[in-house]
Design goal:
about 280 residues; alpha/beta; Alpha-Beta Plaits; 2 domains
């Protein structure tokens, strides 16, 4: 892990940014970034100055929202579960390339209303500098709604957040990345409750088998499985491939494939990014 001197300077800057806000609501998923942000906010503002808000809906597995609630409690934070229903938004269901913008706009509008009703005017979320390297249309919604991204403002990158989280004793320091289940669908493929359930069921099965990093991408009747590169070979041992294939079929898929490149962040964004580059050219 890299040298932490620069990270510690950025942490000081982060603390200064947070201190200016007085009272904050933290968009809290329970992942590496939001857990670090919540801990930093609690250290600066104290329990009375911080509220953690977790979105709960069908596009967020229950295991993740349950973990977020337990983690917030262990950190001593006030916590609120805010129910959302993205699948009631026709534009979201159509799954265009700006789906993330549509989702973030709806989510943070509701979170902003909830926070303001409690007298909290500042909402913080956990984007970091690494997020600038991917296709992230949702970041426009954050700017439009005045949502603050203090980790990004402080110049913190993912590796530094993991380093500082480990030093703080946060259990999330080595937590695997997670994104909402809507990211498992190619742009343009309609997102439905049934399809979400297919993906969640298969991913949970793989997690139960002990795989740490898992994505099941939904391509019509095909399930494209991504696991960590160091875990791919295991899929072909001890009859696991047949078991996983049977589970995918039980969930509703006709075919089950293994992505030879393994897990990588934003694999569904690659086509969109190529199209955008082509259009700009």
């Amino acid at each position: 892990m890299e040298n932490g001197s620069g990270a510690h300077e950025k942490l000081k800057h982060l603390s200064e940014i947070i201190k200016e806000q007085k009272r904050v609501a933290v968009a809290f998923s329970g992942g590496v970034d939001s857990a670090f942000l919540l801990k930093a906010a609690l250290d600066v503002l104290g329990t009375g100055g911080v509220l953690a808000i977790t979105a709960g809906s069908s596009i967020h597995p229950k295991r993740e929202t349950d973990h977020a609630a337990a983690l917030a409690h262990s950190l001593g934070a006030r916590h609120m579960l805010m129910e959302t229903d993205e699948l009631s938004i026709p534009e979201f269901v159509r799954n265009p390339k700006n789906r993330c913008y549509i989702c973030k706009r709806s989510l943070f509008w509701k979170m902003k209303e909830k926070a303001e009703s409690l007298g909290i005017l500042s909402i913080l979320e956990g984007s970091n500098t690494d997020d600038l390297l991917d296709f992230r249309p949702g970041m426009r919604a954050l700017k439009e709604l005045g949502i603050k991204s203090p980790l990004l403002e402080a110049g913190l990158k993912k590796s530094e957040i993991r380093l500082l989280s480990r030093e703080m004793g946060l259990e999330t320091w080595d937590k695997q990345p997670f994104a909402c289940l809507a990211t498992r669908f190619p742009y343009g493929e309609r997102i439905t409750t049934e399809k979400i359930a297919m993906v969640e069921s298969c991913e949970q099965y793989l997690l139960n088998l002990g795989f740490r990093q898992v994505r099941v991408r939904h391509h019509g009747d095909i399930a494209r499985i991504e696991v960590g590169k160091d875990e791919t070979a295991r899929l072909f041992r001890d009859g696991l491939s047949e078991m996983v294939d049977a589970e995918c079929r039980r969930a509703g898929f006709t075919y089950c494939t293994i992505d030879l490149k393994g897990y990588r962040t934003g694999s569904m964004n690659q086509a969109a990014a190529r199209e955008e580059t082509h259009e700009q050219g």
